[in-house]
Specification:
With about 400 residues, the chain is mainly beta. It has one domain: monomeric porin ompg (Porin). The protein has 1 helix and 18 strands. The strands form 2 sheets. It has a 16-stranded antiparallel beta barrel. Strand 16 and strand 17 form a beta hairpin. It is globular, with a radius of gyration of 23 Å.
Amino acid sequence: MLTSPHPKAEKPFQALFKKPWLRRELALAPLLLPAISMSAAEAFKLDSSYQVYDESEGRIKVVSRYFRGEMYLGDTTTFRFQILNDAISGASPTGFLPGLPGGGQPFLAELEDLRVGVLGALSQQIGDHKVELELSRSRESDYLSEGLALSDKWELNQKNTTLTLGFNFLNDDIVVIGTRNQEKRSYDFVLGVTQLLDKNTVLSANLTIGYSEGYLNDQYKIIQRTNIVAGTAFTAVNRYPENRPSSRLREVLQLQGTRFFDKYQAALDSTIRFSNDDYGVFSQSLQIEWRQGIGERWEVTPFFRYYRQNAADFYHQTLDGVVTTQPASFPDGSGPNYSADYRLSSMSTLSLGLKTRFQLSENFSLSAAYEFYDMRGTGSNQAPAAAYPTASIWTFGLTVQF
């Protein structure tokens, strides 16, 4: 999958551009509605979309343009691709506490960047197996990510059961200001099963084991500490780079159920996701969609998503009383770990949205979506309230299919 783990683009769900934890392929034909997979009757499918992610009060704004295509090359071969361009601007919390003396250290830092990404995937049907190889590349001013993914979907039980086995690898090169470039490597192993219970019901379960190593810090996040000025009785608030562990092991379990209702020409889709890692972060999420057909041309999909997590073991608002030695100027993950990044705090998010699709003709369709996103701190290990964003997300698309 095309990914960009750069921390500057603070998207609400892994987002907008990372491995989409809610994107999936359904085996049940009536449920596919606008998201129909390529078949032998189609030569190609093109999809272009424009998306604006806009946080309130002048925070992060991301304007994205996607161009996706899928081509049927023969009875058993399919090629798909994706090109994206993101313009990122606005301001993001640095980790410095607001309202405290700190020699002018800002609570928010301005940022601006441009990201360009490409992805290509070739799939081949071999008997009951569909094997796919995917390559991706994404570049920003200070971040280069290159990826490889290999997957196999094995159809059993007269195609009522599908087993999925996959492996993803990402190799990232990060330009860190003031020192040499750093590297990060990520590995994901995916095991899944999809079961067709009847002509209108499908269930699926997916388990992902992921491991990352190397430079896992966000170089744009800091943490403060109150120090005594040598030889005086005065104190000063100083800033230091965060220091996350140099490795991360995570497990993700996703359960999904979809039910199509013939009487109402609608489908109910529910997804539950549990995630745990050795940072000490345990998260849970729930998404519910109702896809409603209206006549022969319209589809309307209201959706709801809720997410919550506890704080990482090394999350702190400040280093006061946490680290007494001099923190490293360029931390490498060793020694005591610490971060004031609000994304590692105890928090929850809520998303409410509506997606629509209009079938102009047999070959053309238009789509639009709006989502309201709200993040808030919870419990005792939360960041300052001003750190958590709210955002509006608008998406417009055109699909051409022959």
